[in-house]
Design brief:
The protein has 18 helices and 18 strands. By secondary structure, it is mostly loops. Among the domains are: 249 residues, no CATH class; 127 residues, no CATH class. A two-stranded antiparallel ribbon has the order 1-2. Strands 3-10 form a two-stranded antiparallel ribbon. Strand 17 and strand 18 form a beta hairpin. The protein is elongated. The protein starts with a strand and ends in a 10-residue tail after the last helix. The N terminus is likely disordered.
Amino acid sequence: MKRYSPGINVLQLLILVWLGIGVSIAGSLPSSRISDIRNTKHNLSNQPSSGPSRAVQSGSEEEICVFCHTPHGANVDVAGPLWNRNLSTATYNTYNSGSLDATMEGVALDQPGGISKLCLSCHDGTIAIGSVRNRSGSGGFGGPAIAMSGVETDGTMPVGPYGETTGFTRRIGTDLTNDHPISFTFDTALANKDGELRDPAGEAEIGNRGPGVQPHVPLDNGQVQCNSCHDPHIRDASDPTKNIKFLRLNRFQKVSPINTTFNEANDIICMACHDKAGWVGSAHATDIVANETYTDTAAALREFPVGTAVWETACLTCHDTHTVQGSRRLLREGVDGPIGASGEKTGGNPAIEETCFACHSSDGGTLTSQGINTEVPDIKTDFNLGGTYATHMPITNSEQVAGMEVHDIGTVQQDTQETAQRGKDFIESQAALGKVSKGGSLNNRHVECTDCHNPHRVMRRRLFNQDHLTGGLDAAGTHAHDITDIQAETPYTTHNNLASGVLRGTFGVEPVYTSNDFNQEPTSFTIKRGDPGTPGFGTGTTNVSEPYVTREYQICLKCHSNYAYDTPPMMSASSATTQSGINHVTQYTNQAREYNSPATHEGEGQNLGADGGANPNWSTNNHRGWHPVMRKTGRTAAVRNANANNWLAPFNADVGNQTMYCTDCHGSNTPAGTVDPDGPGNENGNVWGPHGSTNPFLLKGDWSGNVPGSAANDWTNRQGTGEDVVSNDHLCFKCHDYQQYASTSGTTQDSGYGGSSCGMMCGPSFTLARNLHRFHVQQVSQFRCNLCHVAVPHGWKNKAFLVNLNDVGPEGGYASTGNQVRNNTTAGYVNGPYYNRAALKVVNFQTSGNWFAGACGSVGSPGNGRTGTSWMASGSEACSGVP
């Protein structure tokens, strides 16, 4: 190559002509960017630069452009700008995910092409940086490679200080599975298929370049390539040392987004193409929530300016377009591999939770304020609780039976319902959840953070449908529990089951029932999906009929029901979950079946026992019982003939009309007398949610029928319910008043389990007839809830969760109803999961407040045939001292 004149050569002149009047190869530039390669890291020559420090450069080459361009002998295999390099012949592993709509499901992208191959000729590390086709001053073509400093020993791109498998190298290698997809067609069809991409046909920012058309996000023959986001020649217009990563548009968010229209002056570049439903105003996007700043160490590792806040990093908080090797979905540090000296992940297997734990932990070291007693919930602690019976959702790869993450957002496989645009709503196939008849395996069952939360849509409001833009903030994004919070922060006055802000816009299911029988499963499920704030999608109300998730249980039931399996899985599949045999449970139950709460069974006095699954002989005054997770019971304090204060606040308000959450019982252990992990007025301590617990079954308290040392112990070595110090902290008494159920101290209050006459007892004990729980505490040694109540109290075939050992049916392994058990023995009946030392036999069900002794007892052979106090207190089936 020959000199044209001092200070400028032929190559530079031709490149300037080709570029036109100040227009970069990228197209037009926003005012914050200028083309000035001399003052960037892409100045690989020995020419001085006022830009950032350069680790890679030549000690002898004066020309700047020669490392990429030549006026003669350019690579004819490249339809690009006089390319002066050979292209790599490497075969690449390309990006793929269940929600990638640019290909068929399960099919990875094609090999890179177009302009991206030019970038890869340096950045994949297969060709030396100084290996050019035509050196300047060669007088012909060819010549030896340009000598470079700062490169690897073979002259290729340096791996950098952290290593080639980290997310902090620009030697991205030939494995592109952890890099933003390239060389795919971006058009209207793709935008429509995905649902969260902007349509290039209607966006001036995106498109092919042409005469008079210079989009800021240029496509290469309709395809996304490296140069759609990057321009290798540009720098920040005001500060040449600013690290903009050669991005055409903003690397960070400048102002909290207020609408979905892309604003090039304020929005991060990702938003030029991606239009995430629910992102605007979400917890991770707004400066009034995500205002925590990065530690200096974390900022330095990520090359963020010191003092950067989470809302500013926006997408980059959780994603990195060139992330750590092994991560899925471009998740930042989303692997389970080892951690380097500076806190960087150095590769590993996909682990979504690791991305979340970077902030949602006490040991992540990412933010200057995170962990217990901060506004950033510490979720990781609950997943790492210790203790003999500690349990948590199986979230790590080592805890998953499959040994790896199987859940995959966007997958369809054999599903036939709601198959379009699954990725945007985090829907995954039933096969991925474990349903064998849909092509899955029970080994697939585990949990990911994104099974319950959509991080693009979560918000700090008590209710999922509250205004998250102009409506202000609540103390937390979890539901309001205390009555004062409910009334102050929601439109409601009593406890309910509505999804909270942290559950906004995720995916769930609503069971469809064709039978009220306890032993019959739902026949189908309606998928609930989408963001309630999307215009034209639903009405934004809390009606259960809305197309989106409105209730917490809808999220739980997509895994804990026959939506996700054909046969309930066995216990002990994972080391993280409750081990088989605890409370005599060896197999999970179907919560959608148990929680069936028929409207016709609300209230009292119905003769619907047979409709609910009981034998017709026990139909009178009977109905299905349930905790009001799916719907209210209709059994008010007045209907029950009970004092509302038999329940603890907030459940003593509007008894029978209120509803509750799965997470009122499931979550980390809480203090006696409450299910609130923090207590009233405190929101930043222990977290809500079924992440982990020191108790079996992820319960907030002990749930056991155990008598330590007995022959039929249930392996917990914990005392069951009864009048002792330990029982005061039992799960039941987080909501039910211990004094009114398991103690004789204090004043007796009316209970639904009471009688209005001398039917149970007379004399000094008559007062206790108003509350027969308290009476039985005096009469029955080792008194426990599950002597009379079912051991899995989600929902039941009989009223008030009452067991009836005169009528054991399919739930106990029998082919039909009406089987009498615990015959001529004083031992409790053990038959998990529903019977754990049960003793009660019901002759005739009574309406609440009208029980009498003769309503209980054996109905005859094969039992002893006794009823009333004769059956209870003495004889071969006495229940006064069940071991």
